[in-house]
Amino acid sequence: METHPDIVDIRERHEMAERAASTPKVQAVETMAFLTGLYLAASPWIAGFNGLTRLTVTNLIVGLAYALLMSGGFGRAYERTHSMAWACCALGAWTIVAPWVIAGDVSTTRSVWSNVITGAVMLLLGLVAAMAARAGDKSESAGRGRARAYRAGPR
User: Fold this and answer.
1) What does the pLDDT read at residue 104?
2) Cα distance between residue 36 and residue 116, in whole Å
3) Which of 64, 90, 135, 152 lies 20 to 30 A from 40 at CA?
């Protein structure tokens, strides 16, 4: 690996990703998203609508997937993990409409309110994570431009 021609760029990207992922804002978003995903997974039993079996299974699967995606469960590469935030936005939107699409007959208002509020929170956290990743990409490209200008020397 030490002989790789782009080792300096690779190290810079890794260090930048570690700095970006360790900011208090990003850590707070990841923590809130993880807890939101766990709540969605457990919401049928917490809100008391576990009799709707299809919606119960859907909430369990989507909640666990959301918690894993937003908490960095698929790796610590910041630009890859946080670019999945858009997929989490889609999961949030799906959670909002799931009581009508999955259950067909929405028999409890608890299931509707639980899914709509949780889905809205999921969508907002996904948007915040996507914007944070986008801001990180912009600062990364600006940093690379400065680094290239520095290496090139005065003109």
Assistant:
1) 64
2) 13
3) 135
